[in-house]
Input
Amino acid sequence: MVLAACAPEGGLSEQYREGSNKNYIAGDGTVAEWAMENRGDPVEFTGTLEEGTVVDAADYRGSVLVVNFWYAACAPCRAEAPDLEAINQEYAGEAVQFLGVNIRDQADTAIAFADTYKVTYPSIIDSDGLVSLAFAGEFAANAVPTTIVVDAEGRPAARILGRIESQSILSTLIADTLAETAP
Output
């Protein structure tokens, strides 16, 4: 007996290449913000970047930190990568840093993704899930991608569940959080 199958035009492989959300469960772009008095304690984490450097939350204190949870096969992650990099460049030279948290891939895959999508900020390879766990609870990355804006004290200030649909939304969340630390 011979079995044969053909993927219909517009199948999953095409959706993968175009970065669509079809046949993929992701966040809906919901934005949550927390007032300064409701942010609680700083989030503490330690992780290894794709090139092997160990970083922890204290390395980012004093700056607004934009944390993006992603992985390479995630279509919305691929679609939003250029927008995240554009915003990263917009805030270059200011007290803002970007950090990816790759929840699934090995370092070589993360590096290839960064090369392909011209992403210049580093990513932690979170194979043990400990960085994701550090953000559990009220601030959890309940969808992939999720982007969390962390204030200069290390406390989550805002979260976008799902793909960033508008650069202006994330840019505004960053600007508002950055303004909190202005003299």
Remarks:
- Helices lie at 12-18, 75-90, 107-117, 130-134, 167-180.
- The CA atoms of residues 86 and 92 lie 10 Å apart.
- The beta strands are 30-33, 46-48, 54-56, 64-70, 96-102, 123-125, 146-150, 156-161.
